Amino acid sequence: MATSAAVATQQTKPKPRLKNLDELFKLNEDHKEQVPETVTTEISQTSNEVQDTIFTTLPFSLMDDFKEHPFRLYEGERKKDMVESIKDKGILQPLILRPKQNDRYEILSGHNRKYCGIEAGLEGSPVIIKKNLSDEDAWIYVIETNLLQRSFSDMLESEKAAVLSLQHSKLFSQGKRNDIIAALKKLENPHDTSENSTSAEIRKSSNTRNALAEEYGLKPNQIALYLRVHQLIDPLKVRLDHNELPLSVAADLSFLKETEQKSLDKCLELNGFKADMKKTDILRGYSQKGKLNEENIFLILNGELGCPPKKKRAPTFRLKQKVYSQYFTPGQKASEIEEVIEKALEFYFSQNHNREQETASQESAAYLSADDADHDYDDEQAM
Fold first, then answer.
1. Would you list the domain boundaries of the chain?
2. 0.85 cut: is pTM over it?
């Protein structure tokens, strides 16, 4: 009987409060041994399913990237740090997936964890499977999980463009968006009932540019630029992220046809050209006329086509102080000085012209005299 009482007491013992996802899935240092070393392809029968949510482990081989995933994978030191962290501690935060056909799953959150986990030598990861999600809901998860993990200002330019474009479109229902943000916060800290349990606040209900500008601390015209940038092909977005294209130039290039953008990227890659606003305006003009082919793109970027010829500028001349003080007074007006110099130049060149005429006349007379002398000599020889 004592044993039964002990069991009953153990069963009714309250669970400690959970502070984050690590504790929720028992993936901290105290519970590492509970995560199986080899994951199976079947969902555990003991998985907790609450409101179409399943907690389990799955192999990476069953996980597909989100279609049109707008965020870039980690590179360089950032990727290296995550790989080392996973080697040391494992994947502490579960990936969020939704079911697909043929027993496969689409990643909504955790693309970097998947690829860094593979590089760290893992076969799979703890996951949260969200069933019965619409495409709209899936997009909200993709965007909001990234905004919860890092600030908008930390994102690459193309990522900012993706976030703003999706929120500006009619794709998102604000009510659903708020519900999902609240659910994500609940996953992060299930027992926190306050409205502001994380640093990411639920945003205002509006899809207008002004509302987005206010929400993200941008000006409305910046929002317009980002919305245009989202129309670029991926290689040009990468150039924007690498600071090879200014935001305003990238926005203007988005008006080019997709084939023209591809030709432009190829030309930039092969020749190392830079695109500025003047050249971009010319590119757009030729595109509107249907004349923007690979040859013209090269000529425009090389400065040989469309750019007006540079005007020849008169050289700047300064009068030496010694000469100035010799002929002019300190209080004399600039217009008076200019008039004097102009008259002096007229006199100089008129005198020089007269000398040239006198010299030419003298040379002509000398030539005629020499010619007459030759004729006289010839006559004497004839006699």
1. 16-133, 151-230, 235-309
2. no
- Whether residue 360 has pLDDT greater than 80: no
Alpha-carbon distances, residue 59 vs 56, 136, 169, 186 (angstroms): 10, 26, 35, 26
What is the Cα–Cα distance from 232 to 285, expressed in whole angstroms?
18
Angle at the Cα of 187 from the Cα atoms of 207 and 107, rounded to 5 degrees: 70
Of 3, 107, 104, the residue nearest 62 (C-alpha) = 104
pLDDT in tens, 290-316: 999 999 999 999 988 877 666 666 677
Q: Quick one: tokens of 237?
A: 């977005």
Angstrom distance (rounded) from CA 282 to CA 300:
7
Q: How far apart are CA 62 and CA 237, in angstroms?
A: 29
Distance CA 128, CA 56 (A): 7
3-state helix, strand, coil in the chain (%, to 5): 55, 5, 35
Q: Report the distance separating Cα 124 and Cα 37, nearest Å.
A: 9
Q: What are the tokens at 272?
A: 């190392």
Give the E-state strand segments of 82-181 in sequence order. 95-99, 105-109, 124-130
Measure the N-to-C terminal CA separation of the chain; round to a whole number of Å. Answer: 168
Q: What angle do CA 361, 367, 370 make, to 5 degrees?
A: 140
Calculate the dihedral angle through the C-alpha atoms of 187, 155, 161, 206, rounding to the nearest 10 degrees.
Answer: 50
Residue 105 pLDDT > 50, yes or no?
yes
Residue 74: left if φ>0, alpha if ψ -120 to 50, beta else—which one?
A: beta
Sorted by sequence, the CB contacts under 8 Å of residue 197 that are 6+ apart come out as 185, 188, 189
Q: Domain 16-133 carries which CATH code?
A: 3.90.1530.10
8 A C-beta contact, residue 108 and residue 66: yes
Predicted pLDDT of residue 379? 52
At 118 the pLDDT is 96
**Contact 160/126 with Cβ under 8 angstroms?**
no
- Share above pLDDT 70 across residues of the chain, in percent, rounded to a whole number: 66
**Which residue, chain included where needed, has tokens 């990234």?**
146
H or E element in which residue 57 lies:
strand 53-59
Under the banding of pLDDT at 50, 70 and 90, the label for residue 81 is: very high
